[in-house]
Design brief:
The complex is a heterodimer. Helix content of chain A is 23%, strand content 32%. Chain A is of the alpha+beta class. In chain A, strand 17 and strand 18 form a beta hairpin. In chain A, helix 2 crosses helix 3 and helix 2 runs parallel beside helix 4. By secondary structure, chain B is mainly α. Chain B has one domain: MetI-like fold. In chain B, a hairpin with a 6-residue loop joins strand 1 and strand 2. Chain B is globular. The chains are: A alpha+beta, B mainly alpha. At the A-B interface, strand 6 of A face helix 8 and helix 9 of B.
Chain lengths: 366, 293
């Protein structure tokens, strides 16, 4: 167990390609941090710099209070779980798990003991003599986890460990990883591009985009108070609806025929209004006192079982939006619905910078 | 099940004719001739032959000179295979770690591959020449009077050195591609599990190279046994005398210098059986040894 802290960590590849542009982050003792972002956002590079597999261009990485920038991966006392498991194909499951311990000169009995405990915990005790090729994807995943936990390291590093599993197994392993990490209390850094994995596993999420941290926070914070349009669109499925808002001198207007009863002072000229699909209410009548009222021209309805996604345009020609409705929605294409959204469900972003704008609640006007 | 059908059933055979005729003309027919001739005592001038049964085999096997040649061939093969494999593995590991200008570095290492064995022999003949050879001069500095073609050990040394040098590029290419097919993540997992690079190489990388290594071992044995003919012929200037030669060279020498077609045929049948066994071992082992998923 250890605190991992990164100060202004940068990675510049040959040819001046900047993959990580100054990331600072502190992972508390026993905390589960998930790095999430689209491919190429630098999340894996960051993880590999913590592991020591990638050189750090500038900044410092500390594990357990000491700077490890120049320390060999084997001396950092971390364990890593790779996307393709990276098991040693010529070694049995037992040897795969014992290899790191043997190289550290651990006593034979102690190794056997640790491997046995880990194997029981992961339910792979009966496969200890098998070679990795004789195991299924899920079992290999468990061996990779086992190889990490027998080491009892200061930190676990996970590099998209579930991407190679099928959907059902992924959900199951996701839960197991979470449980395991909580029971061991080992500081963990987990990289994924899957926002669902990120939301369910993380104590805190780090949303990365283009080598820059967009937001750090608990999953709920990130979901409910996204700090930028990037975070808002990346976290949540279907993604948040974005609607352009124009300044018409005295007030802000969403579009002809729709009402936006929010008034605030800002020197920003162009705003983007963000509303999550589930935050719209389909009103019974056209009149509403809510902060946002608009009409939706339905173009398609997707039934996905427990809920439905109503696709359409705002007014006749406005931007496309998606509304999430519980149960089976009986709407048909061509129908016009009245939408409302309450004030606290609205997110405002500066269109130019994409940053979230603070709107004081008292400024909502009737 | 859908069957692939040709309108004329002769077509597939027709397409195979070039390959089959080459195999027939250059392998099956001569091999058959050799097996037949090994049971006959041929008149040196081709006027007739007498069936002698196993006599040629018995004569060959009990001949001290043959046994000496076989012994030398064994040592030569082991030395050539061992050194050409280990040196090329070392070079491949080092070349794999090169980051800058790696392709030109590799090209340089593969260059020797383009040299034909007799040419390699000629190059060595000059480098190791008793009077003019620069390497002979170098050896003299260390007090070693290198006498190519005169001293049996010296000749064997030059033969082996040339054969090893000539074979390194082939092994190098295979080892390098073998190294590159070891998944990067496995190397990285090993880097986290084991601090010592040497230990990592022997416990992880080397076992993963085993299929390549085994394949190359067979290739190298075959090379040392058969393909070194050109090098040997040039180095001993077609005059074996008391110089060491390999079994294949002896087959040639006995047949075309000694005019003993029957005995030489018996020797080549023995070599054929040897190759046959090597091939079986290779197929058996390679299937079992491959680790990759």
């Amino acid at each position: 167990m250890a605190v991992i802290s990164l100060q202004d960590v940068r990675k510049v590849y040959a040819g001046n390609v900047e993959a990580v542009k100054g990331v600072s982050l502190t992972i508390e003792n026993g905390e589960f941090i998930v790095l999430v972002g689209p491919s190429g956002c630098g999340k894996s590079t960051l993880l590999r710099m913590v592991a020591g597999l990638e050189e750090i261009t500038s900044g410092t990485v500390q594990i357990g209070g000491s700077v490890v920038n120049k320390v060999e991966p084997a001396d950092r006392d971390i364990a890593m779980v790779f996307q393709n498991y990276a098991l040693y194909p010529h070694m049995s499951v037992y040897d795969n798990m014992a290899y790191g311990l043997k190289n550290r000169g651990m006593d034979r009995d102690e190794i056997a003991n640790r491997v046995r405990i880990a194997a029981n915990k992961l339910e792979i005790a009966e496969y200890l003599d098998r070679k990795p090729r004789a195991l299924s994807g899920g079992q290999r995943q468990r061996v990779a986890m086992g190889r990490a936990i027998v080491r009892e390291p200061k930190a676990f590093l996970f590099d998209e460990p579930l991407s190679n599993l099928d959907a059902k197994l992924r959900v199951q392993m996701r839960l197991e990883i979470k449980k395991l990490q909580k029971s061991l209390g080992t500081t963990s850094l987990y990289v994924t591009h899957d926002q669902l994995e990120a939301m369910t596993l993380a104590d805190r999420l780090v949303v990365l985009n283009g080598g820059v941290v967009e937001q750090i926070g608990t999953p709920i914070e990130v979901y409910e108070k996204p700090q930028s349009t990037f975070v808002a669109s990346f976290i949540g499925s279907p993604a948040m609806n974005f609607l352009p808002v124009t300044n018409v001198g005295t007030h802000w207007r969403l579009q002809q025929g729709s009402g936006l009863r929010v008034h605030f002072d800002t020197d920003v000229n162009e705003l983007t209004l963000g509303v999550r699909p589930e935050d719209f209410t389909i009103a019974n009548g056209p009149q509403s006192d809510e902060a946002l009222s608009a009409s939706l021209l339905v173009s398609a309805v997707e039934l996905v079982g427990a809920e439905s996604f109503v696709h359409g345009t705002l007014g006749e020609t406005g931007p496309e939006i998606i509304v999430r409705v519980h149960g089976k929605a009986g709407y048909v294409a061509g129908e016009t619905l009245a939408l409302t959204a309450s004030y606290e469900k609205l997110h405002f972003f500066d269109t130019k910078t994409g940053k979230c704008l603070k709107v004081s609640p008292s400024r909502a006007i009737a | 099940m859908k069957r692939v059908q040709f309108r004329h059933s002769l077509l597939p055979y027709f397409l195979l004719i070039p390959q089959l005729s080459i195999i027939g003309l250059f392998f099956l027919w001569p091999a058959g001739e050799a097996i037949r001739a090994s049971f006959y005592l041929e008149d040196p001038f081709g006027f007739g032959s007498t069936f002698v049964g196993m006599d040629n085999y018995i004569d060959t096997m009990s001949n001290a000179e043959y046994l000496n040649t076989a012994w030398f061939t064994l040592i030569f093969t082991v030395v050539v295979a061992f050194f050409s494999l280990s040196i090329s593995l070392l070079l491949a590991v080092k070349a794999d770690a090169v980051l800058h200008a790696r392709s030109s570095y590799r090209t340089l290492l593969m260059w020797v591959y383009a040299i034909a064995p007799p040419v390699a022999g000629l190059v060595s003949l000059m480098l190791f020449d008793q009077h003019l050879g620069p390497i002979t001069d170098l050896a003299a500095l260390f007090g070693w009077e290198l006498r190519l073609g005169v001293n049996g050990f010296d000749t064997a040394f030059v033969m082996s050195t040339t054969a090893i040098w000539k074979q390194i590029p082939v092994n190098f290419i295979f080892f390098l591609s073998g190294l590159q097919s070891v998944p990067k993540s496995i190397q990285e997992a090993a880097a986290i599990d084991c601090k010592s690079g040497t230990r990592r190489f022997w416990s992880v990388t080397f076992p993963l190279l085993a299929p390549t290594g085994f394949f190359l071992l067979i290739i190298n044995i075959t090379y040392a046994l058969f393909d070194t003919f050109g090098i040997i012929d040039v180095l001993i200037k077609s005059e074996p005398g008391n110089n060491p030669i390999t079994l294949v060279y002896k087959v040639y020498n006995d047949a075309f210098r000694g005019n003993d077609l029957g005995g030489s045929s018996a020797q080549s049948v023995v070599l054929m059986i040897l190759v046959f066994i090597l091939t079986i071992i290779q197929f058996r082992m390679i299937e079992r040894k491959v680790h990759y998923n």
